[in-house]
Design a protein that fits this description.
Layout lengths: L12 H5 L6 H10 L10 E4 L7 H18 L3 E4 L8 H9 L5 E4 L4 H9 L3 E4 L2 H10 L2 E5 L12 E4 L4 H11 L15 H10 L2
Parallel strand pairs: 1-2, 1-4, 2-3, 4-5, 5-6
Helix pairs in contact: 3-7
Length: 202
């Protein structure tokens, strides 16, 4: 392909994140409305999906991640995995291992999750949101496993290619409450305007 014919306008999803109210008042209102007892920059968000190319290893990875966070007794907001095949083992493990420091949600509306991400200390898992959205939000993240392999990562993201409980625990301690400057690697929230300008100039 001729690079001159490739136009990087950014990821459209960043436009949605750019339109959210990230004020502290809105964060506190979300906590109250959803009965969440969290302090800003003092909790983890965990989103982990089945890697359909490495099913058994990703199931085991989730259990190790869950137990590491449980052992560290850090407040954690966990979202259930998406509807990929073979998620039953992870869902069953969440349901059977309730713990005071990990609060599980089957679903959160986009605008709510975006604000919670903005105020979390670390975003952990293998979701594409770690790759694309966490740099824009300016939050530290730990990407685990190979589900997002071959995607460009920002400096805010530490990639733990092979799950290891000791490494994960040490990395959480290292990054906890560490601030990161927002980065527009996957867009600056102006995709719609850039796309319109591109079309208009054809």
């Amino acid at each position: 392909n001729n690079k001159k014919n490739i136009y990087n306008l950014g990821c459209p999803i960043i436009d949605k994140y750019n339109s959210i109210d990230y004020s502290l008042d809105n964060f506190n209102n979300i906590l109250k409305t959803n009965n969440l007892y969290l302090d800003k920059y003092n909790f983890i968000i965990l989103i982990f999906h089945i890697d359909t190319l490495n099913i058994e290893s990703s199931e085991n990875d989730f259990i190790k991640i869950f137990n590491t966070i449980k052992k560290m007794n850090i407040k954690c907001l966990l979202l259930y995995p998406n509807i990929d095949n073979h998620t039953k083992k992870i869902i069953r493990y969440i349901d059977n291992n309730k713990t005071d420091n990990i609060t599980a949600f089957k679903h959160l509306e986009f605008n709510i999750l975006a604000v919670l991400l903005k105020y979390c200390s670390i975003f952990i898992g293998n979701s594409s949101s770690i790759v694309r959205e966490s740099p824009f939000l300016g939050i530290q993240s730990i990407l685990i496993g190979k589900r997002q392999i071959n995607r460009i990562l920002s400096d805010n993201t530490y990639w733990l290619k092979e799950m290891n409980e000791v490494v994960l625990e040490n990395k959480i301690k290292e990054l906890y409450n560490k601030k990161y400057k927002s980065c527009d690697l996957y867009g600056n929230g102006c995709f719609k305007n850039k796309f319109k300008e591109f079309i208009d100039n054809l």
